[in-house]
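Fold Annotation — chain and its backbone

Fields — amino acid sequence, structure tokens

___
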Amino acid sequence: CPERLPLSIRVLLESAIRKCDGFYVKQEDVDNILNWEERQNEAEIPFFPARVLLQDFTGIPAMVDLAAMRDAVAKNGIDPNLINPKCPTDLIVDHSLQIDFSKWQDTAVRNQEMELIRNKERLQFFKWCSKAFKNVTVVPPDIGSVHQVNLEYLSQVVQEIGGFVYPDTVVGTDSHTTMINGLGILGWGVGGIESEAVMLGQPVSLTLPHVVGCRLVGSISTLATSIDIVLGITKHLRQASVGGKFVEFFGPGVSQLSAADRTTIANMCPEYNATVSFFPVDDTTLKHFKQTNFTEEKFEVMERYLKAVKLFRSSDDQTEDPQYSEVIEINLASIVPCVSGPKRPQDRVPVPCMKEDFLNCLNEKVGFKGFHIPKEKQCITVPFLHEGTEYFLSHGSVVIAAVISCTNNCNPSVMLTAGLLAKKAVEAGLTVKPYIRTSLAPGSGMVTHYLNASGVLPYLSQLGFEVIGYGCATCVGNTAPLPESVVDAIKQGDLVACGVLSGNRHFEGRLCDCVRANYLASPPLVVAYAITGTVGIDFEKEPIGFNPEGKEVYLKDVWPSKEEVQDVEEHTVVASVFRELRSRITYWSNLDAPDALLFPWDPKSTYIRCPPFFSKLSKEMPTPVSIDNAHALLFLGDKVTTDHISPAGSIARVSAAARYLQSKRLTPREFNSYGARRGNDAVMTRGTFASIKLQNRFIGKTGPKTLHIPSGQTLDVFEAAERYQRDGVPLIILAGKEYGSGNSRDWAAKGPYLLGVRAVIAESFEKMHKNHLVGMGIAPLQFLPGQNADSLELCGKERFSISIPEEFTPQQELTVMVRCFLMFNSCAFL
């Protein structure tokens, strides 16, 4: 019965019925969705989203590919006008933000001016795309982060196109696309390669998912912020093993969550590995949209349509509860304030236990929760000078404190709590030490608007939390360099220095190479830890500082009550906030861009290059080619993430990419980041496997190096690959479990392809990355169950030959021949 289907599955059903053409979508697909209970986790179904969402880091390679595709078809005598996205595509320029200035007057303006200078080539390319391609809308810089713009401006709930009304759905190249599910809009993140296919009219293929019903009960603690609720639910869902599944929320507790709370929870979806966390539209959602940019007519159509097709529900009416694959229950009353870290978002630490937990981390052996600092060195204090004043650093000292855009900008309550806390702290005479790298990167100008309107922004600024711009910054590695004296002190004492941020990404070394411990926290706790200057504090028993008279000030003295926050929120977060930013275009309208059907590539550009992927484009279907006498480029272990394969942060001065940019007469200050240069295949190929955290068994220590087996030399990965390609030697990669986990990143497949990698042999793969490898023509081969490189006694220095038949099927066993006369089978998931 369709009315017993989970509401997220009903959205898939509607799409299948509307798009059923007997070719892409068949009657069998519709029947499979109708029979979801029996066919879940078995049937493969096509899904046509209503739109595609790109951000500039992942959007620029997609658009560069389309521009290169136009060139290729034009050379083959085909009209390049045919190359246009068929699916409406929105590209939001938000990830370009690099922090150059902090604690300066007009910091945001100065950073945005630097962005214009640094990213002019890229911005001109984006503007050309908006003019040259049909169905492409570019949202210019200084408007907001991709997920925030998606929530505030792009979300429709229902689409009205060509006389049809149907649910708004989206796939995006940002992992936080899932945030939109908090508004009852089905959407999830895909890789750049899949997004290009959808843009060109192909459906997304997915296995009909399990749907986990998450029943919320109980009342929320007065001290718990939405971030605490997010981290609490994240922990529950991780323990429930919801990886690859849909999660759909229901129960009486749902009504206690505002629309902003729901989007914050949905945003953390990648951290517990669910595909989506879906909150069906209810009265709370409707109330939210009444305050935003919906006209009365649009609102009426939306409400009538959702109720007519049974996509609207009441959380309090248990008779409406659908049939789920399984149900888990979370008592909201059990959630207490927590931070998460020091290396993984799932490692939650109750705030009262933070001091003890950090000390335990110092003692534990090196791992996800350990740094193995000898007892005699745990109390070391290192003096240093900063701006003529002596300060001291020790283990647990906070050197980065960032209120950033990823998770919290959509929820005014937590940002206002941070602002009100800052106000009370300043009034109490508290300050933040000037060497701590503080920043405030809101997801959109809306946040700045209500922080200004509420009167708290000046107090955040007084504590160093200046608005540095709008977009992703610290969480993607775009942190301003720490003062040299701070870096020297950390290295001198081998200190475990800390970063505290209000995002949801904090892999070791991602914020800054020398900052080993990084904690996720709510915005007010970020401010609190910045004031104390250390994570080694018990807020209940120890003061966070002293007022000018020397009196102790505790966190409870400056923490605002929920009533204070709600009162300010009601008077500042109003409908005008959502409308005001629509007119903010800044320098975009004055930016020149080419007027041409084909993009005029500049051979001197270090940002935009025509990639070589279509240089051999032909009308004939290519056939698989076997791999003969390949060398292993890398011998990797478990959990190699896409951050290891294709870094997004700063470009190290001693890297192959740096040498390339220096050959183009650029200074290190002009390097920008890997993410910003994803439109340049020369940089990205050299940046492949350039992570300082890469652990290659050929080398025995971390770093972007490998062994060139024929010569025995240790080289940069790119240099070794270049030698192999020059000698005509194909390459493979040996790896362990969960190869390609983490953020979906198309260059994590494109880069190895351009290095000459033909196959990756691993114990297991992250599904999306495996699909990317296939899309780039790299064979993802999986060891048979119970086997791995060690059990087969592989040292990685052998020569590998893989016979690939012209026709093959998924999970077909292939034989891998090794020159040392060892032979084993591997299962190919193609």
